[in-house]
Design brief:
binds S-adenosylmethionine; seven-stranded mixed sheet; 9 strands; single chain; alpha/beta
């Protein structure tokens, strides 16, 4: 078991994202049990303002699954867009380099707190489900603003404070199980506008309506064990979780709320 007491927040994050396994497991839960069948990544991808010479940077790309929709879109592939995918994890960067995306895009190891590009470089910057991991959010957002061109846009997605994480924390509290919750709520749908407005003149919030309806509770318990903030949870609690969540089923399903969306921030 990982000794979270003796690991810094950054080391813990790097451990969580050292390879793609945890992300893959979490994605499959959403695919299998989400009520909204459009899919979050598709919903986000369809809103990006691509144009033929668009210069794009994605931060915290993870497995790069957003770009599946690029690979299946011949029109977009015909554009001369200059796309850089990045992550601060060696494992993610290696995965991206070996994937089909590696031959079509530039892949780089980048920490959002120190972006190695000149001022005013990109038309579009994307950061999905990663800002809530960042400790110095003001520094991260000022770096994004610095490398964004005037007239460019920053698209970032995150969760709200009434969604899956809070549902889980409530369950852990009821079960009297201790956990590390500090790193998961630094950038949310609720505080995102205020944080972004310190840097960007125009900020708009767009919500994605969804929830989970789960019949196989084992899948949800595996998901719990894959969470960054919960690494170190004892495997001996597995059956306790199973019994608890099975007891919460209504009409054969465990219903879990989701609160997710994104912000579009513009630089003038
Ligand atoms: C929850 S995953 C999201 C992956 C992908 N954007 C998605 O939406 O599926 C968070 C990713 O952010 C990366 N990350 C966390 N902190 C970062 C930082 N300071 N700079 C760059 N990447 C970071 C992690 O390595 C991980 O791949």
């Amino acid at each position: 078991m990982i000794d979270i007491e003796n690991m810094s927040n950054k080391t813990l994050l790097k451990e969580q994202y050292k390879n793609t396994n945890n992300l893959k497991l979490r994605k499959s839960l959403h695919e299998k049990y989400s009520v909204n069948k459009i899919g979050l990544q598709r919903w986000m991808f369809d809103q990006y303002p691509f144009h033929p010479k668009c210069k794009i940077l994605e931060l915290g790309s993870g497995r790069g699954e957003l770009w599946d929709y690029y690979l299946e879109n011949e029109k977009l592939q015909g554009y001369e867009m200059d796309i850089t995918l990045s992550d601060f994890s060696d494992g993610m960067v290696e995965h991206l380099q070996k994937s089909e995306l590696g031959s079509k895009m530039s892949i780089q190891k980048i920490d959002i707190l120190d972006i190695p590009f000149e001022d005013d470089t990109f038309d579009l910057i994307i950061a999905n489900s990663m800002l809530y991991h960042v400790r110095d959010i003001d520094l991260a957002l000022s770096e994004v603003k610095r490398v964004l061109k005037k007239g460019g846009e920053f698209y970032c997605s995150t969760s709200g404070i009434h969604g899956m994480i809070q549902y889980l924390y409530h369950a852990l509290d009821e079960l009297n199980i201790s956990y590390n919750k500090e790193s998961t709520i630094s950038f949310t749908l609720q505080n995102g506008t205020e944080l972004l407005k310190k840097q960007f003149s125009k900020v708009e919030r767009r919500d994605y309506e969804d929830a989970l309806a789960i019949d196989m509770v084992e899948d949800y318990v595996d998901y719990i064990y894959s969470m960054a903030s919960l690494q170190g949870l004892d495997r001996k609690n597995y059956d306790l979780f199973l019994n608890y969540f099975n007891s919460k089923k209504v009409d054969g399903y465990l219903h879990i709320p989701k609160e997710y969306g994104m912000f579009v921030a513009g630089k003038e």
